Amino acid sequence: MSIHLPPAPEPATDPDDRALLHELEPEAGRLYDRHAKVAQEWFPHDYIPYSLGRDFDKEPWTPDQPRLSGVARTSFEVNLLTEDNLPSYHRLIHGMFGSGDGAWINWVGRWTAEEGRHAIVLRDYLVVTRNLDPIALERSRMHMLQNGYDRPTTDPLRGLAYVALQEVATRASHRNTGQYSDDPVADKIMLRISTDENLHATFYRDVLAAAAEAYPSETVEAVVAEIMCFEMPGAGIVGFRRKAAEIALAGIYDTRIHHDEVVMPLVRKLRIFELEGLTAEAEAARTDLAAFLVSLDASAKRLEERRARTPGARPQA
Fold first, then answer.
1. Nearest-CA neighbor of 192 among 88, 120, 93?
2. Range with lowest mean pLDDT among 25-29, 132-136, 151-155
3. CATH number of the domain to which 273 belongs
4. What's the rounded mean pLDDT across residues 190-202?
5. Is 57 part of any domain?
6. Is residue 9 in some structural domain?
7. pLDDT score of 166
8. Distance from the first to the final alpha carbon of the chain
9. Which long-range contacts (CB under 8 A, 24 or more apart) does 174-179 make?
10. Burial of 102 by CB count in 10 Å (0-12 exposed, 13-18 middle, 19+ buried)?
11. Closest to 235 measured CA to CA, from 186, 169, 191, 168
12. Confidence band (pLDDT; 50, 70, 90) for 309?
């Protein structure tokens, strides 16, 4: 099997990028301090029902053992494999924001450390409860990490725009997966993870809001570009399109959630359609965004209608 190793991103050395990061660093420092005060310490082992565990060499995994529904298992698998790719995400945000010392590199380290707990608790839960085949799961993890995850640009504004969207999307996916599972243990785990993701989203959103004040046109262009080409970081999972379609039909994460809970709150927070004095390029991007949002809303309505016609499909989680 050939191994694809995405090129390591160059550090943000463009003079404009350096100026932007330098100008935003005091706000990043303030938001980091705020985050450190409100973030709660927690331990993955406190969430795992270890008493349910059995030795796999004595009792191998079989398809009849999972207690979660098929769609819930699929969503847990996608969420876990997405979290597994943390080494790639660390490489990317370090390339966009991290150099030397100071607020940016402090945040990169803190974010990485907090995100690392998510894969730990998810894997321990799924393996102890035998809700996924551990051999297939490990093979999928190997595939994900060998292929990694990459982005076409390390531009800091584009990066901030992406993570401001992605963290909210991941929060919704985790939270709704837990609720859909009908398992109180799973729900508690996903609530804990989504709480972390919400704090991460708040940091990125508020840094981006500061960028919009200092660089309104550039921020509008960056945000529009990321909204219009947004892709979940788990897109490299084998069979992702099919799995994402199952998850969407179940109402765990669909176009309506993406439009209402991910995209529109950021658009409103940044006052994208109220900003004045934009460049011609930013105005054109804003026009494109308006049309895109109409199309996205229409897609959400079509999926809702399809779900209503599908026997056994649950309402939105």
1. 120
2. 151-155
3. 1.10.620.20
4. 98
5. no
6. no
7. 97
8. 39
9. 174/79, 176/251, 176/252, 176/253, 176/257, 176/317, 177/72, 177/75, 177/76, 177/79, 177/252, 177/317, 179/317
10. middle
11. 169
12. confident
**How high is the pLDDT of residue 307?**
85
- Whether residue 10 lies inside any domain: the answer is no
| pLDDT computed for residue 312 by the predictor | 59
- The tally of domains found in the chain comes to 1
> Per residue in 126-143, pLDDT tens?
999 999 999 999 999 999
Residue 238 lies in a domain: yes
Give me 163's structure tokens: 């993570």
Which long-range contacts (C-beta less than 8 Å, at least 24 apart) are formed by 298-306?
299/255, 300/254, 300/255, 300/256, 300/258, 300/259, 300/260, 303/248, 303/249, 303/254, 303/255, 303/256, 304/256, 306/249
The pLDDT value recorded for residue 100 is: 64
